Amino acid sequence: MTWEIWVWFALVSGATAVLVSMFSRRAGHVASMASSILFIVASIMLFSENTHYDELLHDSFSWWGMLLVSLVYLSSAFSSPSFIETMIDAGEIDDRGARVYYILLNATFTLLILLVVSNNIFIQWVLLELSTILTIHLVMTNKRSRAAAEASWKYYLMCATGMAFSLYGLILLYSAGAEAGLRDPWLWSSLASAGSVLAGASKTLMLASAFIIAGFSVKAGLFPAYMWLPDAHSEAPSPVSALLSGCLIYTPLYVLARLIPVLSVAGSEPCIVLAVIGVLSILCGAGGMLVTSDVKRLMAYSSVEHMGILAFMLSLTYGLGRPEIAFLAFNVHAMGHAIAKSCAFISSGFISDACGTRRIRGIDVSVDRIVGWGLIVCILVLMGAIPLPILFSEVIAAESIRGTWLLLVYLASVMAGFASLGWRASQLLVSKKPVRDPTPISRPILVRMLVVVLLALLIPVSIAVFSPCLAYKLSATPIKELLSTGW
Amino acid sequence: MGVVNAVIAVLSMGMVLTASMISDERRVDRAAKLYSVQSILLSLVFVTLGVTGPRYFLVWAASAMVTKAVLVPLFLLRLTKHTRAREDKPVLGGSLTWIADGLSVTVGFIIALKTAPPHLLAPMTTAISLFLIGLVQIMLRRNLGKQVLGLCHFENSSHLTLALMAPNIPETVEIGMGTDAVLLVFFGCLVASRIHGLFKTLDSTSLVELREEVDAE
Fold first, then answer.
1. Cβ–Cβ < 8 Å for B195, A149
2. Nearest by Cα to B68 from B177, B144, B211, B204
3. I want to staple B9 with a disulfide (CB 3.0 to 4.6 A). Which of A63, A226, A430, B122 is the partner?
4. Residue pLDDT, tens place only, A176-227
5. What's the rounded Cα separation, in Å, for the pair B144 and B87?
6. Distance from the A118 Cα atom to the nearest Cα atom in chain B, whole angstroms
7. ω before A224 within 30° of 0 (cis)?
8. pTM for this entry
9. How far is B134 from chain A (nearest CA, A)?
10. Measured between CB atoms, does B166 come within 8 Å of chain A?
11. Are B181 and B68 in contact (CB under 8 A)?
């Protein structure tokens, strides 16, 4: 069972980083960086392992999820020292606060790794809820900021409500499984392999679908309850914004990607609902990007848009499109968004600190060539204007759609997002109204190069689309992989 | 079994009654104490199930007593100790609160009628009603402490549904949910007290820092 060894290796390194962070903030710096590297090592080592289902699971989807969380951890851990030291200098946080920051950051990433490898639907829920609770405190790291405290409250109230809905749905799903006589109805693999056996409890399943989709869509920042996302993601310190936008809002969709085929046994309604929510989220994200004047809020609204695209891709995977390529699109898009968004938040944090404002019209990207142009490239990647994962996945998703009207709706909404972000990106380049003379970014070159290194990672992700071996691995939907193992 | 079902029905009806009293109560400290009573009733439901059925429900009862009847109210009382305990005028108050709660119970009854087996009708009506009363409380009450109590209703509702609809669930799930309930309220009170420190109020309508500034240029 070497796969379990590597999973435990990652979990123990994360837990060690949490413990070490208690001693001093410098130890926290080092431990989080070391732990993020060990997470990536564990993810790489799991690549060639076979599929397994027990209380923990390992399949290509969980492997990809683990890699995604590890890469966002890397970006967050390596950029944190720089932001935290600046906050300490400004008196926005004290030494104890910095230690708490590292404890919570490392604990959140460890919980997220455990979440992606967990086979127990209730444990997944508990981990998702705990990671929400921990990040609420991370959002209000700046102890002086009224806006951060208010954003934390909105995040707390809305996500806790959403998670309560999803728990209710999971209980109903478990009840449907128990009613159908399943052996371990709390295990995803047990529910997913039941197939039409669950159809007998279709009424309970439909109610469960409504609660689960409603709950997880709040947590993922999807329409209609996305209002907390622009507030929380923009008011958090940039490495926390990277964590929130890069992987925390992806994880509910990861859970949904496993549950939707189980819920769809009773009918295709869950897929249709998800498609509608997805398109409306893309449009709301696009609208938000048009009206906001704040660079971090711009990135946050872009996350709403991209979560909408991911939700739409899920609906294509499980009913409205060709499953294999739609799921490949989902995976590639999720990874592309996670890397590009982490970079975008970190570079926008550096630039807005240097310019003394977060207003788009006050930001001068030329203040630092590496970080400034890094931000512009990130935005172009997120728009889908550069042939990198996001563009590829959007084209693949369009290719997988069955039905002309659905294709037209998808293209129109994606184009709306493209145009809104493009309009704001053009404003970053022209018509400067600085609030003060920009101060050069004082971070070491290695920290600034982090943006470039992360962006470079998008190239191998793009290659994955064209590599038959990896593309095959990523196109296998979790349910097909489960059934192919004869579980 | 008829007596057991009757005892559970009476206890769960008591939970709905305390939920309505919490909704109507404008003093957060009193509402926290009422929540403690509601959690004791939940523990008694578990004790009844444990005495007449699987023994693990007795562990659930002990866990609910410690986490929900003691720890959660303590956190809320601590929050109100340093802040003004009385809520400002709610968005919807007085007899309208009771009407909203009555509607919640009616909707809960209709849903339970369609989904629950006949012997679980009363407790499932309670579970769904608690959920809806919690939702109404979060949307219509202005005090942050009262909003946390709305979330606590969700917790009790889920816990009751879990006991009734999901038998033989692993112990890890129960431990996870118990821990989550405590941490949820602890961190909620932490954010609320930070907000009180910065805004000098626990009134949610005063939180207007993040109103979107539309770029008209």
1. yes
2. B177
3. B122
4. 888 888 888 999 999 988 877 887 788 888 889 999 999 999 999 999 999 9
5. 9
6. 13
7. yes
8. 0.93
9. 9
10. yes
11. yes
